[in-house]
Amino acid sequence: MINDAERDHRVMAVVASALQKPAELRRSFLQLAFQDDEALYHEAAETLEWEERMGNFLLEPLCVFKNLERPFQPGELVCERFEIVREIGEGGMGIVYEAYDRKRKQRIAIKSAKTGFRRLLTPELENALQVRHPNICLVNEIHTAQTAHGEIDFLTMEFLDGQSLSTALSLGAKFNQEDIMEIASQLCAGLAEAHRSGVIHRDLKGANVILCRSADGKLRAVITDFGLAGAAVDALGALAGTPTYMAPELWRGEPASKASDIYALGVILYELVTGRQPYAGLQEPSEDAAFTSPVPPSVYAKGVDRRWNAVILSCLDASPSTRPQDAAEVLARFQRKPFRKVSLVAVVLVSLLILAGFIPRVREPLLDMMRPAKVRLVVAPASSSEEMDATSRRILQNASGLIRPLRSGGAKVVVTPPEKVLNGNVITPKQAKSHFHATHILRVSVRREQNELEVRASVIDLGTQGSIREFSARYAPETAEDIPKALAGLVSATLRLQGDLASEPISPAAKRLYDQGMDLLRKNSYSYDQAFSLFTEAARLNPHSPLPLAGISEAKIQKFHGTKQQLYLDEAQEALSRAEALNPDSVAVHLASGLLYRTNGQYGKALDDYQRVLEIQPANVSALVRSAVIYNAQNMLDKAIENCQKAIQFEPDAPLLYQQLGSFYYYQGKYLLAAEQFQKAVERDHTLADSYASLGAVLNDLGRQAEAEQALLQSLKIRETALALSNLGLIRERQGRDAEAAGYYQKAAALEPGNYIDWLNLGDSERRLGRLAEARAAFRKVKELALVQLHQNPQTGHLRAVVAYAELRLGHNSAAEEEINEALHSAPGNSQVIYLAVLIYETLGQRNQTIDVLKGSTPEGIREIEHERDLAALQQDPRFLQLVAKAQEGGH
Questions:
Q1: Which residues, listed in sequence order, are joined to residue 416 by a DSSP beta bridge?
Q2: 793-892, which class in CATH?
Q3: Which of 288, 504, 589, 723 is the least buried, fewest Cβ under 10 Å from its Cβ?
Q4: CA separation (Å) from 658 to 390, 649, 655, 721?
């Protein structure tokens, strides 16, 4: 039974939605919403009648303008920055303009609330505005302008030069299957990213999808107005939406959810395929409306894959619980992902004769027999030419044998081999589902391509008839015997199965080289070339193991970080594809894949890889630490520290774990805790140059210069690194020896030209030495390098703060202030962001802002400011001295 508060909320929510509809349809809307509760219906009807007599009080702002005026006019300069070009769109409560951003020198769009509706743009929107994805309209910031009608909120966003999907369809646009697949895939990807970020659209529809072209001319589908619909909902105290895109539960007054977004996505996909909406001509629900009945199976269109019917209809299911759980699942059901092809050397057919026969079947324990199978897999006969039939049969027989011992939820997988499928005369997926009670099918094609064997495979979900994951690789004589394991790995990774498949036999000689290479990569960030040589030799010694190839991928990724040259990421992807061709479910492959995704800023996919590793090996320290690094990049420092501490529980003597934990504490401004962890690292391994360098850096920040210098010199004695050189330069800088400091920074930048921190330090020293041209060149380099990384992850507050500082030193004060404000918002409590913010505000003469920022610092962060030469005036301010006194007491 609902309580009075819940009852009132539901009534007011539904009434507010009813008031947005034509008067003649409002009662029928209430009847549908409260068809299960007559008392609530009568209460809502009375409330509706009162609201109508009061002039729709719920829907109007407190200050109502009979003719809502435009907040801005063409030619107007808003906030001394945005030049209004023209009005390009209008909604009930908002207007969209094309504008020119004089500061960033680019076309943008501005979306403004109409006068009287300022509350539609609220700070609560900021979570939605932080979602970054190519298929979501990039929104930069909420601004407030002073107008004759008072303050008006507006958003600045990217300018999309195109037309809405609704407009295109209304003009008779016809899309071929390739375009439909591209648009649908992009919409699913964008919506999935929003949902992963906890953002619900609430008003997804064809009018909010813009079709335009990317810089390379490719079709780009962009979802707009994320969070704006939600703001309207909050402002009205009710649920709003566009009728023909609204899920059944929304009509009943239930809150918006991922499931209601999936329903709207289904309507859009239906329109894409058929050119019409699923309930053509129906504008409002009624008792006999099709909103509560199944959609007729009319999704088919000429030239469009018929399997789309099941996928789209599942999105339009009347029950939220039976729709796909999220857009990623919809995407997985119908998207054919690009094949990863592996170019290897020549193949000789006779080499396939080494493929063994059936793996002996071990008698199952009684407990296993009693458990109901969660996965029942049909291995379909291979699609191949007649000359390849015998080879294909052997491949699938061996793959079936490898899959059979795997488990799902404690129960073994039931595998129906190809010969049983043939004997049963099963041809279609529907027959496989009914005849064998199967849940999935593995489909494989094998064909000879010149001197190579090309294998393509897909795992199909029989519940949706959609492909979940696809695979493609070419095999040479030395790796052809690995095809069955690759197929079994495909199934295992796709269905998240448990078993011994992830174990990787490797020859002792190759394993020694592989371990040496991984140890080098862990201990020395510049050892990528040496590690690459070790991995290459290991791959030659053991061409059947994916470990050396995954190692090559990691070495190339590390080289990219040191050089920032894209070609090394391309080479990393190539090596990873070759490793996946041997076993897609290898732990080493998942770790390398996660590292590549992380480097490309695809944190969700990286975490998925690491989660799979932890499913296979719950105590895998690398997966725990790498997940922690991603959490740290997303400003989830507590989660990062928790993961790192868990890893230390598994390997308490591993020095690099303490090194990583120390870095997390450092960015929280907890320098004493950071120093403690770095000290533990060097105590466990006296050869770790980076740990000594990190210890020196934090001791310097704590004002213990003599100890810091000793640690840094010890680091350089082990190996010359940019980290040690740069931190030694900081010590010389604080001693007033800028010429020496600049020399250290120049050496650091030469060793690691892609590290923006080295260039930032160099720029400051050159500035103090009066070499302004050199300083500006260094700061331009800082901005260039930081923006490249910021593009990969726009939410990284520290990167944004670095950009802000570079802008300041380049004389772009407004840009510096804007960027540092965003940095402080996206990374609250980050000690390095606070430090740079203080430098920026002091340089801009904003002492009050400086003090406010410092109030959020740690005691160690306050004490660090005491040693900064550029902040001498601040150090005399009584308010700062009070903060210092509190810091010395250990608190604020």
A1: 378
A2: mainly alpha
A3: 288
A4: 55, 11, 5, 20
